[in-house]
User: Which sequence fits this backbone?
């Protein structure tokens, strides 16, 4: 269950619509960093993660010979995606400057 939840979070984390300012200054997260990305990239990431988890599930329930490899691949990918998101956000902050404006 945890593997599936971790595989779905990239697709569920994408903002579908801009948040209205409601007459106030728009706030940014501490440090001015915000995760940016496209819905397409998030969908591809989620599909790859779900594919790896699905492969692991097939190997697990059929007592396949690749169960160890598939478990390690799924776990490594699910650990690497949040790291990649953070590094992408930090790289975007460096490109746009401390104020976050381009």
Assistant:
């Amino acid at each position: 269950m945890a593997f599936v939840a971790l595989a779905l979070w990239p697709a569920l984390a994408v903002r579908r619509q801009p948040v209205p300012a409601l007459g106030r200054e728009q706030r940014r997260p501490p440090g001015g960093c915000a995760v940016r990305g496209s819905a397409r990239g998030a969908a591809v990431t989620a599909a790859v993660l779900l594919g790896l988890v699905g492969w692991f599930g097939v190997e697990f329930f059929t007592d396949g010979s690749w169960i160890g490899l598939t478990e390690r691949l799924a776990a490594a990918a699910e650990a690497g995606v949040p790291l990649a998101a953070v590094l992408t956000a930090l790289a975007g902050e460096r490109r746009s400057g401390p104020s976050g404006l381009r």
